[in-house]
Amino acid sequence: MKKILIVLGGTSKERKVSLDSGRACVRAIKTLGYKYEIFDPAKSDLIDLKKHKPDIIFNSLHGKDGEDGNIQSYFEYFKIPYTHSGVISSMNCMDKIISKNIFIKNKLSTPRYFYIHKTNYNKKLLKKILKSKKINCPIVIKPSNEGSSIGVKICKKNSDLIKFSDQLFKSYNTLIYEKFIGGQEIQVAVMMGKAIGAIELRPKRKFYDYKAKYLKSSKTTHVMPAGISKKKYLEVLKLAERAHKVLKCRGVSRCDFKFQNKKFYLLEINTQPGMTNLSLVPEIAKYFGITFNGLIKKIIQDASVNR
Which residue in the list 148, 165, 253, 279 is annotated as catalytic? Predict the structure, then answer.
């Protein structure tokens, strides 16, 4: 029986989510009968990964260092087969500026945007860019390389833009300014290149933020399958498959869309979707008859190097 090393926790701002995801995966891996050990990069040096002599690494990390190609480069260096996307794909998907450029190049609609680096930022420049790009409020500001909606701010007026820019530049080097798209929140799970389903989220909060994603108390309504026409449903599945392909994702990914005026806008693609009891990929999979344990088994079977 193969030995799985489950990598979880880590040092990113998504540590708690990673621990929740990792524990759920540990339970499944245990039930599936694999031998396993747990590795937390916050408590052990990455150079020690090989000491565990795993046959496969199950990557349950989220956010910085776990989802951006960094830890994947260690897996590749040690030549240990691992789950989810590879180095370049993870890096490109985590960096929203790079991924947006790839979306645009491949004719995948995404909200209009621009970005500013901290060293160039001032109020005069911000106003100048807004005018030249013809982007008006509401505008979404977000860090260029965070996940789980951490640091996302919706600005309804220009004074919000300046206030939140000043706030966020204290913690981040590069911010994306994106035209806010209303409409329906649609997310699609893709597994081994094939879209398995689309779910709609109806948050009670202003938008599908960190609390809406991970707290039961936020009471986000999950509509499965998404409340759109059959034709549009099939269209969004194809768009997600295309995004997965052009960004060279592997294993499981999740594409986040907004649907407004009969048009889909791709916001981002996640290479390490959550695996908590409130997570969307397991929920979509379950609707189509794939149990949580079955999902984890498929992810493990797909593990490899040179991803």
Answer: 148
Residue 187 sits in a domain whose CATH number is 3.30.470.20
Q: Number of C-alpha atoms within 13 angstroms, CB side, residue 23? A: 7
Check if the beta carbon of residue 150 is closer than 8 Å to that of residue 210.
Answer: yes
The verdict on whether 68 is a catalytic residue reads: no
Reply yes or no on whether 256 is catalytic.
yes
Q: Would you say 299 and 251 are in contact if contact means Cβ atoms under 8 Å apart?
A: yes
Contact 274, 167 (CB under 8 A): no
Whether 307 is catalytic is no
3-state secondary structure of 169: coil
Q: Look up 214 and say whether it is catalytic.
A: yes
pTM value?
A: 0.90
Owning domain of residue 224: 93-108+182-301
Q: What is the pLDDT of residues 79-106, one digit of tens each?
A: 999 999 999 999 999 999 999 999 999 9
